[in-house]
Amino acid sequence: MSRVGKYPVVLPQGVGCSLEGGSLKVKGPKGENHVSVPSCLTAEIREGKVFLSPDLGVVESRRLWGTTRSLLQNVVKGVFEGFTTLLEIEGVGYRASVQGAILKMQMGYSHDIDFPIPDGVQIKCDKPTQIAVTSIDRQRLGQVVANIQSFRPPEPYKGKGIRRAGQFVFRKEGKKK
């Protein structure tokens, strides 16, 4: 049995949840989001908590129980607090800025990189070498961060590129004479 799935998801003050069809809609101060509940699970809302229970006759229900509970927990946290990821840019002449709905990056190429900011994601550049990406949807946030990092991933010889704040980049020794 799932050790994660058996714990209820606590709804903080100001967050509401409703069961509509096969999905749970969660509404909070930052916005609203939803999680689809598989047909082999049943969701129940009582006393400010959401309980998920599996259909023990279906083998897949035990597999999906903990996963669905974790997805629901992330949605609740997202609409209540939101998620933020900090990116650091390292390299001579590498910098970024936000102009309207476009993230402009100078990453050592012969041209600037224009990255259109998707809906539901906010990007701020407090410093030219730091990008803060914020969203209520954790999966969308991770995908946007991965797309930004793909323009110049951190390389192991000089350490130049875009990395998450606190990310360790294994440094290699260069050529020897």
Q: Would you write up a description of this structure?
A:
The chain is 19% helix and 40% strand. The strands form 4 sheets. Strands 11-12-7-13 form a 4-stranded antiparallel β-sheet, covered by helices on one side. It is elongated, with a radius of gyration of 21 Å. It is of the alpha+beta class and 177 residues long. The chain starts with 8 loop residues before the first strand and ends in a 13-residue tail after the last strand.
Jot down its keywords:
177 residues, Outer Surface Protein A, domain 3, elongated
Short summary:
The chain has 177 residues and is of the alpha+beta class. 19% of the residues lie in helices and 40% in strands.
Taking all residues together, what is the mean pLDDT? Answer: 92
Q: Any idea what the CATH architecture of the largest domain is?
A: Alpha-Beta Complex
Order of SSEs, N→C?
A: EEEEEEHEEEEEEHE
First CA to last CA: what distance?
A: 59 Å
The total beta strand count reads 13
Question: In one word, what is the shape?
Answer: elongated
The number of helical segments is: 2
Q: Mind telling me the C-alpha Rg?
A: 21 Å
The tally of domains stands at 2
Q: Give the biggest sheet.
A: 4 strands, antiparallel
